[in-house]
Specification:
Catalytic activity: 2 a phenolic donor + H2O2 = 2 a phenolic radical donor + 2 H2O
Order of helices and strands: HHHHHHHHEHEHHHH
Number of helices: 13
Organism: Populus trichocarpa
CATH topology of the largest domain: Peroxidase, domain 2
Largest sheet: 2 strands, antiparallel
Keywords: Biological rhythms, Calcium, Disulfide bond, Glycoprotein, Heme, Hydrogen peroxide, Iron, Metal-binding, Oxidoreductase, Peroxidase, Secreted, Signal
Strand order of the largest sheet: 1-2
Protein name: Peroxidase
CATH superfamily of the largest domain: Peroxidase, domain 2
Family: Belongs to the peroxidase family. Classical plant (class III) peroxidase subfamily.
Shape: globular
Distance between the termini: 58 Å
CATH class of the largest domain: Mainly Alpha
């Protein structure tokens, strides 16, 4: 009799233990991100996103850079929840209006990807997962590593436009502040150095770099590189709306590789935060390792992108699946 009671108690305890994660998920409204989240609800979801990313890249090569930047700007501010994509409407202040978002573009092509998904699986694939997966596929188009990424994010119903600057570092901030911002979302020093390697592709508006070449050239900058920048940015007071820009990496400007770190060691960092990586004792060893080994850079970049993409996502019954990435669903 006692043995039977023990077995019954053991089985009951085991059942409760096994069901506990489901019970916690039910009451909290949260679930975990997972690989192939859309396998049943929209089997071709990831393939559709990949097809659109390739098509847009072939037509507008710079879209691939935009997808990578979208991931950073969306995920570091509160959550990977597509709050970045919301327009200013009905009391919502768009994050895109922040000074930190200067130069961001190609948002309209997110709508192109969303439309392709909606035609096959209406109100199923979140805009937050579009941000994540388009970045994953964009990285490949830029010659970077294939990043294995989980899905199941849901979309925010609010924007964080008023607090963007509390999360996204400025190009003039100290490297210690930059490191602390990334560490607050779980990205370590090595991962932060790798993520800044995304500056290997794309371009920077002159308004963000002229302070390093006017009225005098920053003494940490290579003189020949400074002359190149003056040619790209001929005035110390550029129009923020003007299409005046310079590239961080002139050797392989549309390839995500370790030339960024080689340039830093040659005193050719474009932004102040870039060049500081070589002078800070916490970051400089990683700069040297990444400059010497592109495979190591790609490995650390992949790891850090995953950490970034999984920052505090909305899951389960949190948030919503937006029909249009630009607007909260109407009730």
């Amino acid at each position: 009799m006692a043995s039977s009671n023990i077995r019954t108690h053991f089985c009951s305890s085991t059942l409760i233990f096994l069901l506990l994660p489901l019970l916690l998920q039910f009451y909290s409204g949260k679930s975990e991100l997972q690989f192939n989240y859309y396998a049943q609800s929209c089997p071709r979801a990831e393939e559709i996103i990949k097809e659109q990313v390739i098509k847009l890249y072939n037509k507008h090569g710079n879209t691939a850079v935009s997808w990578v930047r979208n991931l950073f700007h969306d995920c570091i501010v509160k959550s990977c929840d597509a709050s970045l994509l919301l327009e200013t409407v009905n009391g919502i202040e768009s994050e895109k209006a922040s000074q930190r978002s200067l130069g961001m573009r190609n948002f309209k092509y997110v709508n192109t990807i969303k439309a392709a998904l909606e035609s096959e699986c209406p109100v199923t694939v979140s805009c937050a997962d579009i941000v994540a997966l388009s970045a994953r596929d964009g990285i490949v188009m830029l010659g970077g590593p294939r990043v294995e990424m989980k899905t199941g994010r849901r979309d925010s119903t609010e924007s964080y436009g008023a607090v963007v600057e509390d999360f996204i570092p400025n190009h003039n901030d100290s490297i210690s502040l930059v490191l602390s911002r990334f560490q607050s979302i779980g990205v370590d020093v090595e991962g932060t150095v790798a993520l800044l390697g995304s500056h290997s592709v794309g371009r920077v508006h002159c308004v963000n770099l002229v302070h390093r070449i006017y009225p005098t050239v920053d003494p940490t900058m290579d003189p020949d590189y400074a002359e190149y920048l003056k040619g790209r940015c001929p005035t110390p007071d550029p129009d923020p709306q003007a299409v005046l820009y310079a590239r961080n990496d002139r050797e392989t400007p549309m390839i995500l590789d370790n030339y960024y770190y080689k340039n830093l060691l040659g005193h050719k960092g474009l932004l102040m935060v870039d060049q500081q990586l070589t002078s800070d004792p916490l970051t400089s060893p990683y700069v040297e390792k990444m400059a010497a080994d592109n495979g190591y850079f790609h490995d650390q970049f992949s790891r850090a992108v995953v950490l970034l993409s999984e920052n505090n996502p909305l899951t389960g019954n949190q948030g919503e699946i937006r029909k249009d990435c630009r607007y909260v669903n109407s009730n």
